[in-house]
Design brief:
The protein has 13 helices and 8 strands. The chain is an alpha/beta fold. The structure holds 2-acetamido-2-deoxy-beta-D-glucopyranose (6 copies). Keywords: Glycoprotein, Hydrolase, Signal.
């Protein structure tokens, strides 16, 4: 039995070594990204100054772990997108609204706060939001359309043949907007199909405009975020699942969203067989971190505890004392923390997720398999 096992392992390993990634050139020469705070590399802070009062994430400790200064990324360091760019030998994807206007190697349209649904629609739903959310998926697609002639000026017909598109994550802000506007989880769940429709329509528009390779990200477990756990705190133990997340949010929003999205991606993939759609996951790795934190080098006692925040255990989240505001502290070891500021993940967690997208098992097919 043992010999057989060894043989199988060796068989699997050898072909991988044979086509080793290092050295061989990736097919991708640029990345075009759409999304929200999970992918924003600086658009919101650019846009907000001077339209909005200074945002907490334009201050340290945002950026402290990797860049040493705030960059507009809502993390202590890099995002999944940064790790992907790096693995493909490309520069970090420049934000569309930033100073760097050379988009030869890619452009990032993602804006923190961006919803999947358009603003006209959301405003019609009587949401009470502060700060207001802007730059929906539709708005980002308009930016893309405007920039497309200059992106394509040199490549001609097969303009996006070597471009990796990344769509999402989208949906998180839509759900948070409803939940934080006093809608019940059940009421919020009614919006899942139109939110997934909007994402799926966005993917189809990219295909129609020439995208050949598109990563579509699912949604993280909304009910496991310290900010959501604080706002929706309940005294009834039955409201929580075995990871300590809000069971109803997980069932009626996160998992429902992801199963619908997976189905829509399958449909699109068979409708457009000449496009490669890569299904990428935030949900499963996040749950794996909660389930077996030590396996990933994360501290088991702080998986639901916001590393940067105030209020103490269990969640260390207080919207009036948010990360980046004066006096708000950072945990001793961000490299062992999963949750950064109540709604976003640490550099360490983003790297773990990116590894799963690049090599598998959290992307199907894994990005590096498509790249080489
Ligand atoms: C734009 O960036 C590309 C690659 O990132 C580089 O080769 C090119 O020289 C740059 N163009 C200008 C005008 O700086
Ligand atoms: C906004 O979204 C709604 C719901 O998805 C859709 O019916 C409507 O056509 C969209 N409006 C605009 C202006 O795109
Ligand atoms: C929004 O509020 C208006 C005025 O109170 C009401 O007529 C409308 O039905 C509400 N729409 C939704 C979707 O709740
Ligand atoms: C939230 O909803 C509850 C129950 O529907 C209602 O009693 C309460 O006034 C609402 N609060 C706000 C701030 O709208
Ligand atoms: C994990 O975090 C807790 C609470 O901050 C701390 O007391 C403990 O020492 C940490 N464990 C390790 C292994 O660092
Ligand atoms: C949250 O922070 C504010 C401002 O520092 C403080 O006044 C309030 O008591 C805190 N709330 C909780 C529940 O700790």
């Amino acid at each position: 039995m043992r010999t057989l096992h060894t043989a199988i392992l060796v068989l699997f390993i050898l072909p991988c070594l044979g086509t080793g990634y290092s050295g061989s050139q990736s097919r991708f020469t640029s990345i075009v990204s759409f999304g929200d705070s999970y992918a924003d590399t600086g658009n919101l802070v650019r846009w907000a100054d001077p339209v909005l009062p200074p945002l907490p994430f334009s201050n340290l400790p945002y950026g402290q772990t990797f860049f040493g200064h705030p960059t507009g990324r809502i993390s202590d360091g890099r995002l999944v997108l940064d790790f992907i760019a790096d693995a493909l030998g490309l520069p970090f994807v420049p934000p569309y609204l930033g100073n760097e206007k050379n988009f030869t190697a890619g452009v990032n349209f993602a804006v923190a706060g961006a919803p999947a649904l358009n603003l006209t629609y959301l405003q019609g739903q009587n949401l009470t939001l502060s700060p207001p959310i802007r730059h929906s998926l539709d708005d980002q697609l308009v930016w893309f359309q405007e920039l497309k002639p200059s992106l394509c000026s040199r490549q001609g017909a097969n303009c996006f043949g070597s471009t990796l598109f990344v769509m999402g994550e989208f949906g998180g802000n839509d759900y948070l907007s409803f939940l934080l506007s006093n809608r019940t989880v059940e009421q919020t769940g009614a919006y899942v199909p139109i939110i997934v429709d909007s994402i799926s329509r966005g993917v189809e528009i990219l295909i129609q405009r020439g995208a050949k390779y598109i990563v579509v990200a699912d949604i993280f477990p909304v009910g496991c975020l310290p900010g959501v756990l604080t706002v929706l705190a309940s005294t009834d133990k039955a409201d929580y699942d075995r990871h300590g997340c809000i069971a109803g949010v997980e069932r009626l929003l996160s998992r429902y969203h992801n199963s619908l999205l997976r189905r829509r991606i399958k449909v699109l993939q068979s409708k457009y067989p000449h496009t490669t759609i890569i299904s990428a996951e935030y949900y499963r790795p996040f749950i794996a971190f909660l389930h077996e934190p030590a396996h990933f080098g994360l501290n088991r006692s702080t998986t639901l505890f916001s590393c940067c925040g105030a209020g103490g255990p269990p969640y260390n989240y207080n919207s009036s004392s948010a990360c980046g505001q004066p006096g708000v502290m950072v945990c001793a070891h961000p490299s062992e923390a999963l949750q950064w500021d109540g709604f976003h993940l640490t550099d360490a967690a983003q790297k773990l997720i990116a590894d799963g997208w690049l090599h598998g098992p959290y992307a199907d097919p894994p990005i590096l398999h498509v790249a080489h």
